[in-house]
Design goal:
The complex is a heterodimer of chains A (196) and B (210).
Chain A: H1 3-8, H2 10-14, H3 20-32, H4 34-51, H5 62-73, H6 76-79, H7 87-109, E1 112-114, E2 126-128, H8 140-146, E3 163-166, E4 169-172, E5 175-178, H9 187-190, E6 192-195
Antiparallel strand pairs in A: 1-2, 3-6, 4-5
Chain B: H1 20-28, H2 32-54, H3 57-73, H4 84-105, H5 112-125, H6 135-152, H7 155-165, H8 171-178, H9 182-207
Helix pairs in contact in B: 1-2, 2-3, 2-4, 3-4, 4-8, 5-6, 5-9, 6-9, 7-9, 8-9
Classes of the chains: A mainly alpha (196), B mainly alpha (210).
Chain lengths: 196, 210
């Protein structure tokens, strides 16, 4: 090895990353080469000077200033602890369960609730029996179209209630699924009816 | 009938005993106390890094402040499981690099020639070490000269040099921080050390190192 090869080992020697054989060779080279020895001493002294430089210190109150600046740079909504609050999905699930519970209760009574009212007087809802379904298509829509002019313009007259039939849903692992039932079951067991 | 008693320690772990990574988990949820603890732990090292890279102590605190503000603003970008200090110093290195380039663009920074001139001046004006007088002033002048010598190392070598030989990071960490391979880190640091030594050679010889 020559001086050029020796100088290439200065860095790893300083970092203590040489193999035993390399170390022994380099130290032997230092013993016989004053130039390389001097160069290495200058290198190590330079690095020592650098590491001995006084460390920069922050002025008192630095952390408070950083925090104040961070607050200014952060949107207010983003500063709320727990920016993805857990109460949102929990509340949503609870609300959905409440709606489902209401639907099941109505379905369990087997009746439809109709607001039977006239004029501005509000009456208690009256339970009426649903009309049997005969498997044939009913014609409430055509009836509505045909008798459109006969529909009273009143907020409280629900004589021609429109029925919205919703498929029941159930919660499974936090997701809503439509309940699929067998064809033998009656429509009443698989549908919830909301009338308004 | 057996009774199983589960012991539960209700005492929370003091925030000063939490790891950096656990603290960052809390910072990500917006806990400001955890963030303040992070700042307290690293404010010295970050400021020192920036100060040495820029050779500007007055500006270093402002830049260090910006480093921590970005940590907070981008706190959710920190990936749990990765070493926090590496992430932090990646931000610091990038901001320092940007600041150097901004200063160069604005020509509000020392040119290499000017630095060499200043370095030469400082070595000339150093007191004779054999006199043994005004040692604190001499030490201060030496520190200034070393600081300017570091600043005279080209930017892409300088950051690696400071991260390694002042802040003591491992080569692999520096590679992550600077987004360069480990071999490139080693070659940059070797180059930087050689440049630093050449800059300080007049001073070293005057000091009678060799």
């Amino acid at each position: 090895m020559n001086c050029r090869q020796a100088r290439a080992l200065f860095g790893p020697y300083w970092d203590d990353e040489l193999t035993q054989a390399e170390r022994e060779w380099l130290e032997a080279h230092f013993g016989s080469c004053a130039g390389c020895r001097r160069d290495y001493e200058e290198l190590t002294r330079s690095l020592e000077w650098m590491s001995e430089l006084p460390r920069a210190e922050v002025t008192p109150g630095f952390a408070d200033r950083v925090l104040a600046q961070a607050r200014r740079r952060t949107p207010a909504t983003d500063r709320v602890p727990g920016a993805s609050p857990r109460w949102i999905p929990v509340t949503a699930a609870a609300a959905l369960l409440a709606v489902l519970g209401g639907m099941v209760l109505q379905w369990g009574t087997g009746v439809q609730l109709v607001h039977h009212s006239a004029g501005t007087t509000l009456d208690q809802p009256v339970a009426i029996q649903p009309e049997p379904v005969h498997g044939t298509k009913q014609a409430p829509v055509s009836g509505l179209v045909a008798g459109a002019t006969e529909i009273p313009d009143s907020l409280f007259d629900h004589a021609d209630d429109v029925e919205f039939i919703l498929d029941p849903v159930t919660l499974r692992k936090g997701r809503a699924h439509t309940v699929v039932r067998g064809p033998t079951e009656t429509p009443r067991t698989e549908q919830a009816v909301i009338t308004f | 009938m057996q009774t199983l008693v589960l012991e539960h320690d209700p005492t929370p772990v003091p925030i000063v005993r939490l790891s950096d990574e656990d603290l960052m988990g809390r910072v990500a949820e917006g806990e400001e106390r955890a963030f303040t603890e992070i700042v307290r732990r690293y404010q010295g090292r970050v400021t020192n890094l920036v100060s040495r890279v820029l050779n500007d102590r007055e500006a270093s605190e402002d830049l260090a402040q910006e480093v921590f503000v970005r940590v907070f603003v981008h706190r959710r970008n920190y990936r749990r499981g990765s070493k926090f200090s590496t992430w932090l110093f990646t931000i610091a290195a990038n901001l320092a690099k940007n600041e150097i380039r901004r200063r160069v663009r604005r020509k509000n920074w020392f040119s290499l020639d000017a630095l060499q001139e200043m370095l030469g001046d400082s070595t000339i004006h150093l007191a004779d070490p054999t006199e043994g007088k005004e040692q604190s002033l001499q030490r201060e002048q030496l520190q200034q000269a070393v600081g300017r010598a570091i600043a005279a190392v080209p930017e892409k070598y300088r950051l690696a040099l400071v991260l390694r030989d002042i802040e003591g990071f491992a080569y692999e960490e520096i590679g992550v921080m600077l987004s360069i391979p480990g071999g490139t880190v080693r070659s940059r640091i070797n180059r930087a050390r050689g440049i630093l030594k050449r800059k300080l050679t007049p001073l070293l010889r005057r000091e009678g190192v060799s």
